[in-house]
Amino acid sequence: MLSIDYKMDNYIEHEGVVVAVNKENVVVKIIQNSACSGCHAKGACSAADRADKEIEAIAMDSEKFHVGEKVLLRGSDHLGRQAVLIAFVLPFVLMLLMILLLMFLFANEGVAGLGAIFVLIPYYAILYTRKDKLRKKFVFQVLKLDGNK
Amino acid sequence: MEYIMIFIAAVFVNNVILSQFLGICPFLGVSKKVDTALGMGAAVAFVMTIATIVTFLMQKYLLEPFGLTFMQTITFILVIASLVQMVEIILKKVSPPLYQALGVFLPLITTNCAILGVAIIVHQKDLSLLNSVIYAISTAIGFALAMVLFAGIREQLSLTKLPKAMEGTPIALLTAGLLALAFMGFAGIA
Amino acid sequence: MSKIKILTNGLVKENPVFVLLLGMCPTLGTTSSAINGLGMGLATAFVLMCSNFVVSLVKNIIPDKVRIPAFIVIIATFVTIVQFCMQAYLPSLYDSLGLFIPLIVVNCVVLGRAESFAAKNSPVDSIFDGLGMGLGFALALTILGGVREFLGTGRIFDIAIYPESYGALVFVLAPGAFIALGYLIAVINKLKAKN
Amino acid sequence: MLKTFRIGGVHPPENKLSAGKRIEVIGLPKQVAIPLSQNLGAPSVACVAKGDEVKVGTLIAKAGGFVSSNIHSSVAGKVAKIDEILDASGYRRPAVFIDVNEEEVWEESIDRSETLIKDCPLSSEEIIKKVAEAGIVGLGGATFPTQVKLSPPPGSKAEMLLINAVECEPYLTSDHELMMEKTEEILVGISILMKAIKVDKAIIGIENNKPDAIKLMTDRCRQYTGISVQPLKVQYPQGGEKQLIDAVMGRQVPSGALPIAVGAVVQNVGTAYAVYEAVQKNKPLIERVVTVTGKSVVKPSNYLARLGTPISMLIDAAGGLPADTGKVISGGPMMGKALTSIEVPVTKGCSGVLIMPTLEAQRQKMQNCIRCAKCVNVCPMGLEPYLLMSVGEREIWDRSEKERVMDCIECGCCSFTCPSNRPLLDYIRISKSKVGAIIRSRK
Amino acid sequence: MAKLESSFKNMVLVLTAITCIAAAALAGVYELTKEPINQSNLAKQINAIKAVCPPFDNDPMADKIESKLPDGSIITIYPAKEGGKFVGAAVETYTMKGFSGYIKLMVGFNADGSINNYAVLQHAETPGLGSKMQEWFSNTDKPSQSIIGKNPGVNKLTVSKDGGEVDAITAATISSRAFLDAVQRGYDAVKDQLKQ
Amino acid sequence: MENKLVVSPSPHVHGGDSISKNMYGVLIALIPAFIVSLYAFGLGALIVTLTSVVACMFFEFAIQKYLIKGNKTLCDGSAALTGVLLAFNLPSNIPLWIVIIGALVAIGVGKMSFGGLGNNILNPALVGRVFLLISFPVQMTTWPIADAANRFTTMDVETGATPLSLIKFGAADQVNVWDAITGMISGSMGEISVIALLLGLCYMLWKKIITWHIPVSIFAGVVVLSLLTGLNPLVQLATGGLMLGAIFMATDYVTSPMSHKGMLIYGFMIGAITIIIRKFGAYPEGVSFAILLMNAATPLINTYCKPKRFGEVKKNG
Amino acid sequence: MNLILIAVLLLGAVGAIGAVILFLVAQKFKVYEDPRIGQVEEVLPAANCGGCGFPGCKGFAEACVKADSLEGLLCPVGGADVMGKVATILGREAVAAAPMIAVVRCNGTCENRPRLNNYDGATSCAVASALYGGETGCSFGCHGLGDCVKVCPFDAIHINPETQLPEVDEDKCTACGACVKACPKLIIELRKKGPKSRRVYVSCVNKDKGAIAKKACNVSCIGCSKCMKACPFEAITISNNLAYIDYNKCKLCRKCVDVCPTHAIQELNFPPKKKEEPVVETKEN
Ligand SMILES: Cc1cc2nc3c(=O)[nH]c(=O)nc-3n(C[C@H](O)[C@H](O)[C@H](O)COP(=O)(O)O)c2cc1C
Ligand SMILES: Cc1cc2nc3c(=O)[nH]c(=O)nc-3n(C[C@H](O)[C@H](O)[C@H](O)COP(=O)(O)O)c2cc1C
Ligand SMILES: Cc1cc2nc3c(=O)[nH]c(=O)nc-3n(C[C@H](O)[C@H](O)[C@H](O)COP(=O)(O)O)c2cc1C
Ligand SMILES: Cc1cc2nc3c(=O)[nH]c(=O)nc-3n(C[C@H](O)[C@H](O)[C@H](O)CO)c2cc1C
Ligand code: SF4
Ligand code: SF4
Ligand code: SF4
Ligand code: SF4
Ligand code: FES
């Protein structure tokens, strides 16, 4: 839950499999399910697609892990909110502002529409330049899964 | 004022899920996490906006001039499907950590009928670009609202004992029905 | 599997709506009356049958990675064809089904069957599967439409059973769709549990 | 307005039947059984063997760890065996059995005179050492070894000593009676404790339903510097450490922290008396005041009983087990422990024996939670017992932890108040033990 | 036959081919059904005009006039002529004030401005309530609720609650108001024509 | 079995509160309102209330007997209470078959489908009422006149408009606040007399059945929003189902938040939504919808508004 | 015709662009899921009970596909039947695992074990055992409050109202082990089902000394080691006053059953031997 208790860190956890162990990090493959994954009929439906994502997680004691091991990936949920903010909310607001601005300036739907789409290019460009900063921000921990669980 | 009206209408009066019956799959399927519901809402808002803009431009500058409006459905669905994929690639390319973080926190956004539905509805309603975009955003907010309310309700239901036959989809549908009943109170506001 | 089995599979055992819970959006959106439900169901059944057939014909020339878009294109084509035909020959039904005809494209039943059946089986089997599933879908929609129409207006297929003033209007409105479908599935769950 | 704590609380009927009954001394049994685990923390380790002769006050078991305490013989006699005895929970636990000799022989070091010795020349360290040797544990019910409590962890400093004379449990009167009869001794004990923890201020918190004790203590404490009395509005569980601190000092101990975090050390009056006896008279903890009470009890009274005396003896002294007995509780009705047998011995933590008639003893049928929030309103820790119970029932431990199940002080207000008769605390308690184990395993 | 491998060439080729075929098929079907669709739309319109207007022999679709109301909305008028003589007009009018917004009517006026008949072309009012518009206001057995024969220029066509001459549909005052609003707008649009 | 000790975890005493005590307490608190409605609407009020209570109890019994087995809750008064409150939300001249459908929906859909007492998300009586309102709008919005001459002889009495529909349709000047406070107006049976309802509130506060938070914050929400939208707050408070809703229906334990902070948010939002619906919506009255909407939001409120934990207030005070 | 041409061009273009995008996607996200995982999952019973030791049926399917042999992998719900199917899909040998079943190692019925007090707390073995030893003199035995019953996903274990002890339904139990985890008294054990479902086990977990145990319960194991001596296969060990029969060594000869003075050893599903069942024998006490 988002913030049952604001004093306590809340985590989101995801199970994954270690695919590589490096010096300071461990690469974990997670299986991501689509929105339809909650549906019991997903077997019959292609929309329930799955994708594997590889995620680098910081682990000081990376030697503890071995390839193929099942682990728990954990990040604090406020990171999740930030990710959504950067990936979706900000560009979305930007597009909106762009449309408003261009409509106001040119009163032409074509220009405004194209402008709104193309404003994403500089946005992503800026994101690209901030790559390293973001990398530092979005860190995950890997935890050993309890043997008996 | 017009925009506010579109907003209220799309969020409360004609809520996508509760009165338009679009996007029921994620509504029934998504978890009981409020966070996920909100994240889905944001993601859907973004995708819906881009999809609406792109399909709007396609319709106005390609399909209509060439008299190809009959290909609306097929082009829209293709465009939307590719768009969603594009967003993923770009995100992954631009900022892998960000992309990874999303992977952990959100389910994939699948093209659900709400997105296609909105893209088509704005043309049926003959809205202008700006109005279409507002409509798309409002729809997404309505989607998020219903999802979040529902996530909370599910969470509570998971701690009570339901009659066996009602477990799962039936209770979800029933609750959605009662929510829709409550939302009818907004009728006529916009 | 025998053809009959494939056919009845979709009608009862794996009924897409009541058992597999697929395609909820059109199910809820188009069942304000039995006739609408039937119309939508048959339209979907047609698309399902055709797309199943075509998909299983071309399944081998489609690379895996473009599988889904290719299926979507095929489905969308049939959907649009249905849309035109309905517009031309059944205009009133078209009016009442509205938006949901184009949305057959994203109906999980159609894509789902293309993926999970047609892409693996022979064209003939696929036709039967499409027909069975489609009829199952149509059956479910008709039942739901019938129930809603009956409870809401006292009629079934527009035949008055009891005076309209006794009908509970909610059932033809949005909340009624959810409630009626919820209880139908509950009843089916209960029956399933008994067997 | 009288002071009290700020969150939650209930008012169970007080039923202080034995109030004002003077403390009577209970005779010795033929054999005592002194369990080796009488304190919170590690059990003690026996240091006598079968056949050993012991005197009253002879050390028979040593502390089994840092958080543990010594145990002394409460009688003079011969160690019959070291064997298992059924404890109050129906489990078998090791105990020292001593056959009582006719003749009472006391350890020579013990000063048995009645004279009040006010001055204590010892230093803080020496006091704590003596307390440790005497095997004193908190007599308020928690049986936490007192010497540990008196040695604050490095980095924290006590500002004030709070004496817990609240006795908020219904029925119980042992602390009340002790205050009436051993006033001076208690006050000296408090001074010693103040010295031990190096504070110059002590406040005795007493609930307003004991006006005579408030008056007496207020009068007498004037002669002692730094000690004052704070009357408190009657409200359960005011005796809870955190609640008492909140009521008296207006400070709330943060979640998971010790009272010392807000500068307080809390001790029960009985503990203060025991400290007096240990430090000034060299007398280890071998006896305590026990209230025997109950609506059908012929003669509800306060007894001074040696540790190891079977509870049945106390009950006999109070007029025997009533015919309608349904439940026998060691402690008060809110936090006490129901006994499976009345043959279990009196231990350091036993402040009362409550005998409840069958009619009252049975719980009512549990129903669905109607989410009335009454449990939430009465919880003195600001928790949501209804939620903790359903989460606990479903064994969702991480959620339990997030909902702060570990903050629960097991006061029972929630179960007491629930109109649906839900066994909230039952489930919260197992959640606490599971979550506690999980937290410990993480370290 | 083995499955085609997912190489770049294959993917692009196959998907392009499939879309091309689909497009061709669609365009073909579109061409085929274009006529019937238009026909059916036309028929709808003509039937509606026929239903609401006094008998005529011209082609109202060809003679249609667009009239602009003061608020800027455009309303289409289909004049009906019998032997060249103006006998009345069908007005395709609408309002946005319905319970669910848009309501489109075809109202037929006689030459004197009285209402000959009307047809509800499009609406989203609640079934069982607002949707009763078609029967309710044409029920000539109940003069207080029927608008047939009434003349918006003479009679006050608002609901009785608002002081008018028409009883609102039970429990659907809003739809009734909207309906009458649309009728009134139709009349406003056509009244200049009638005067000729 | 004699003399076997009973063993159970602590606490060993119970405060003696019970579900039925609370439910019957609310029923008692409803008596003044019932008397006023008897006086105002006569026979109809009696018959509709009886029908509703009997039907609710019957459905509760039948469902628990044949469909959903579990704790029997027939006699704890909750079904009877739902019945009374449902009846209080209906016009007194409503056909009885509608009352019975309402009872079926309230108990069957609103309560039992979720697992019975304590598990429902939405207020059962309001589910019943809104279901009826939308299903049978004609019958549900035909209000008998209070104090009609023939009220003790027949259920068919003259009808009139409620103050709120007068306001909605532009006849606000015909609304007399004093009549609304005493109860001599048209409306649902239970909602008409503000005085009687406030009496009930006082009783429930005295008996500690409910706390003040929800009703007061609803009133606050109504007042604030009325002032913002230029309505007369006093009229808004005194008319329609507001008092009935704020005092008896929004306070339903099962469907309202658990913490005081949550209750205040919940109440304020109910007041605010009510005024928004009254002012801008198609319906003259919005209390039922507002309560249902906030019922739906209650689980969320519960997850985010936790009670004030011990130790969370300023550390050193 | 013109229209058709434009349509084809436009849609073809869209299709081509789509294909390019998809190709890029495919390059970026190498999604490869062994299709056999899905196939395996399909034949699994979808109970998601976790009895196999993996998170859900999906997890098990993955494990089966990845593992080199199916040894040690068993879906307890589907049993050998399903494992056979899995084996065919994967083209491997199904390793026949011995079917297991839950047994309740306590025979302290109301008759065998007199109640000394009445429990009146929450109906939960966990709560009761956190509180105290139980209603009888035996602090090891079953509380009979049915935590095991609550967790069984297959409705296979029920409290017998007469004995107040749980009984396992042989046909329904899949040996998923949920009850084993749930029992706070560690009474339930998964044991080899044995040929014809026959099995012999010590139906007691009391570790008290013989005399005390015997006092608390008529059929307690008193640790007398007669069975150990009688067992020709060295299947029985004694520790903490308690005998334990290793089901891998036990050959079901039932010699131990005969010698046990307290009838603590249970035999199940054997044809009636001479006269009555041991439990019945103790009735006169
Ligand atoms: C709910 C609750 C009620 C308590 N009531 C009392 C009480 O009435 N009197 C008392 O001395 N200790 C009571 N205690 C114990 C105190 O919290 C604390 O352990 C004691 O005052 C510390 O002193 P001690 O170590 O000398 O026993 C209570 C504890 C709890 C959790
Ligand atoms: C590991 C541990 C260390 C403790 N250290 C201290 C301490 O340094 N000072 C103190 O006053 N109490 C200390 N306590 C005692 C508790 O704060 C508390 O008094 C005791 O658990 C009894 O609580 P109650 O009396 O409220 O029931 C400690 C407890 C534990 C478990
Ligand atoms: C589900 C529902 C749908 C409604 N639909 C309409 C409608 O289509 N048209 C309308 O005028 N009123 C409709 N109403 C009724 C109005 O909202 C409101 O009850 C009416 O304005 C009351 O005024 P009246 O009884 O004076 O007509 C509907 C009510 C409900 C419950
Ligand atoms: C203060 C209070 C208010 C209540 N209000 C309602 C109500 O508005 N509607 C209702 O159906 N039941 C009401 N009940 C009864 C009961 O809580 C309700 O039937 C449950 O919601 C059923 O689970 C109320 C009970 C109390 C104690
Ligand atoms: S027992 Fe725990 S949860 Fe219950 S009221 Fe007391 S502190 Fe709160
Ligand atoms: S007091 Fe009882 S009924 Fe009320 S909320 Fe708490 S657990 Fe539920
Ligand atoms: S009895 Fe135990 S092992 Fe057997 S199926 Fe039930 S829970 Fe699983
Ligand atoms: S076997 Fe264990 S879990 Fe089952 S009833 Fe006995 S004590 Fe409880
Ligand atoms: S059918 Fe799946 S979202 Fe609509």
Q: Which class of chain F in CATH terms?
A: Mainly Alpha
How much strand of chain F?
Answer: under 5%
Helix/strand class of chain F: mainly alpha
The amount of helix of chain B comes to over 70%
Oligomer: heteroheptamer
Residue-averaged pLDDT of chain F = 88
Shape of chain F: globular
What's the main sheet of chain B like? none
Distance between the termini of chain B: 11 Å
| Order of H and E elements of chain B | HHHHHHHH
Query: How much is the radius of gyration of chain B in Å?
Result: 18 Å
Compounds present? flavin mononucleotide, riboflavin, iron/sulfur cluster, FE2/S2 (inorganic) cluster
Number of helices of chain F: 15
Measured between the Cα atoms of the first and last residue of chain F, the distance is 55 Å
Number of strands of chain B: 0
Low-pLDDT runs of chain F: none
Structural commentary:
The structure holds seven protein chains of seven kinds. Chain B is an all-alpha fold. Chain B has helices spanning 2-13, 24-29, 34-63, 72-94, 96-105, 113-124, 129-157, 169-183. The radius of gyration of chain B is 18 Å and the shape is globular. Chain B starts with a helix and ends in a 7-residue tail after the last helix. In chain C, helix 1 runs parallel beside helix 7 (123-153) and helix 3 packs antiparallel against helix 7 (123-153). The longest helix of chain C is centred in the C-terminal third of the chain and has 31 residues, at 123-153. The mean pLDDT of chain C is 85. Chain G has two domains: 35-90, 3-methyladenine DNA Glycosylase II, Chain A, domain 3 (Orthogonal Bundle); 100-268, Alpha-Beta Plaits, CATH 3.30.70. Helices cover 34% and strands 13% of the residues of chain G. Chain G has helices at residues 2-28, 35-43, 56-66, 79-90, 125-131, 147-151, 178-182, 210-216, 226-230, 255-259, 278-281; strands at residues 100-104, 117-119, 157-160, 165-168, 188-192, 199-202, 236-239, 242-245, 265-268. In chain G, the strands form four sheets. Chain G has a two-stranded antiparallel sheet with strand order 1-5. In chain G, strands 3-4 form a two-stranded antiparallel ribbon. In chain G, a hairpin with a 2-residue loop joins strand 7 (236-239) and strand 8 (242-245). Mean pLDDT of chain G is 80; it is low at 276-285. Classes of the chains: A alpha+beta (149), B mainly alpha (190), C mainly alpha (195), D alpha/beta (443), E alpha+beta (196), F mainly alpha (317), G alpha+beta (285). Chains D and F meet through strand 15, strand 16, helix 9, helix 10 and helix 13 of D and strand 1 and helix 1 of F. Strand 1 of chain F pairs parallel with strand 2 of chain G, so a sheet runs across the interface. The complex binds flavin mononucleotide (FMN) (3 copies), riboflavin (RBF), iron/sulfur cluster (4 copies) and FE2/S2 (inorganic) cluster (FES). The site of riboflavin has 23 residues of chain F, from helix 1, helix 4, helix 6 and helix 13. One iron/sulfur cluster (SF4) binds at residues 369-375, 385-386, 417-420, 422, 424 of chain D.
